[in-house]
Amino acid sequence: MTPASISFEGASVRYSGASRNAIENITLECEGGELVVLLGPSGCGKSTLLRTVNRLVPLDAGRVLLDGTDVTQLDAVELRRQIGYVIQAIGLFTHMTVAQNIAVVPRLLGWDGATSAARVDELLQLVGLDPTAYRDRSPNRLSGGEAQRIGVARAIAAKPRALLMDEPFGAVDSLVRTSLQRELIRIVRELRTTTLFVTHDVEEAFRLADRIVVMRLGRIEQTGTPEELLAKPATTYVRELVHAADEVYERYYLASRERLRGSPP
Ligand SMILES: Nc1ncnc2c1ncn2[C@@H]1O[C@H](COP(=O)(O)OP(=O)(O)O)[C@@H](O)[C@H]1O
Ligand SMILES: [Mg+2]
Question: What is the pTM of this model?
Fold first, then answer.
């Protein structure tokens, strides 16, 4: 399957009663297979922008296109089945096993039991968990990091065209976080799923991104590769933000990016 492109054309959202737009005239193109990070402080509109893609938040102006088709032209349920969505409060169903959680979308799509079961085992392996040990477990018996892995497995179970991730690793400790970041890069590489990843963590952004979109007060401040943001920050805001990343760059980027990402495909 060819990876999806996601484009925003002058996208704006104003919540009722708000004095300014939560996102303001956002124009952005994400190519198929790209991992794009939305970076900025709390309240700058990252989650709102993400949620316009799967239509959890409606636009007040502009358009969002999935492979060139306005998402409002697509059936919302169908759209959400094609787009994986991972949030911090992972929302695993506690009355189901791990395997049943992962197979939610495949079951909705009518996959037969054997195909689903094989896919569940494949996904558990993909996110670094032993299928035999985990498939029949209750979500109540998982650590935060394990639950987050299951959340990722569930989101990608039916090979979505695109993946939306909203601060998915925010609640896990830094060691687990690093290993989840590593897994994510590998998974996105393997599946070539177009991914929009939200974080307020500069270091995380620099580790993961093909491109970073720096947001402030609902607007895009600058879009560029980590290298471009470091070399040519467009504004003082970006300069100060990536200055904090300078050290990150020295400490992690040059060494770890190679290690985390491997060589380009
Ligand atoms: N459901 C909502 N109703 C009203 N205002 C909201 C809602 N969700 C977010 N906002 C406001 O919109 C702005 C952007 O929020 P959000 O997209 O959640 O930012 P971020 O994800 O970057 O923290 C903030 O001012 C926030 O208070
Ligand atoms: Mg948010």
Answer: 0.88
Across the beta sheet with 6-13, the strand order is 23-30, 6-13, 61-66, 69-70
Question: What's the fold here for domain 6-260?
Answer: Rossmann fold (3.40.50)
pLDDT, tens digit (0-9, with 9 covering 90-100), for 215-263? 999 999 999 998 899 889 999 999 988 877 666 666 655 555 555 555 4
Query: Secondary structure of the chain: what % helix, strand, coil (to 5)?
Result: 45, 20, 35
Q: Which amino acid is at 37?
A: V
Ligand 1 pocket member 20 (CB < 6 A)? no
Residue nearest to atom 5 of ligand 1 (CA): 15
Distance of alpha carbon 6 from alpha carbon 33, whole angstroms: 10
199: Cβ below 6 Å to ligand 1? no
Compute the Cα dihedral for 83, 84, 86, 92 and give only its sign.
positive
- Domain positions in the chain are 6-260
